[in-house]
Design the sequence.
């Protein structure tokens, strides 16, 4: 009986976590590094997110040590086009908390020609 209860509890926690965590894909169009806020454009609608101190910010090659002050976020041309990103959120006390920002775009490699 206790074993079934434990298994049921683990299943609920696992599926509850999946329901609570969410991914949002879009383009970052505004960055406020001082207040740790980003604006993500999804389907022509802009949505603002506040990042916590524990939020991971990842580029194509891994962790961006400078966070929102990284040069990719300071480039106005990048922001005009929008920086492709996936934001992972978690719901705590009816508030969406950003736990990870992953930049998904990158420079495309130009085809190399052999002389």
Sequence:
């Amino acid at each position: 009986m206790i074993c079934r209860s434990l298994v049921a509890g683990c299943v609920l926690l696992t599926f509850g976590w999946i329901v609570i965590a969410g991914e949002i894909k879009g383009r970052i169009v505004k960055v406020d590094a001082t207040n740790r806020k980003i604006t993500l454009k999804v389907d022509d609608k802009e949505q603002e997110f506040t990042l916590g101190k524990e939020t991971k910010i990842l580029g194509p090659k891994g962790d961006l040590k400078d966070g929102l002050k990284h040069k990719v976020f300071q480039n106005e041309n990048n922001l005009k086009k929008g920086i492709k990103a996936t934001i992972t959120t978690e719901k705590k006390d009816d508030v969406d908390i950003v736990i990870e920002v992953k930049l998904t775009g990158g420079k495309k490699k130009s085809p190399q020609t052999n002389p």
Q: What stands out?
A: The chain has three helices and six strands. The mean pLDDT is 81. The first strand starts at residue 21 and ends at 32. Strands lie at 21-32, 37-42, 45-59, 62-63, 83-92, 95-103.
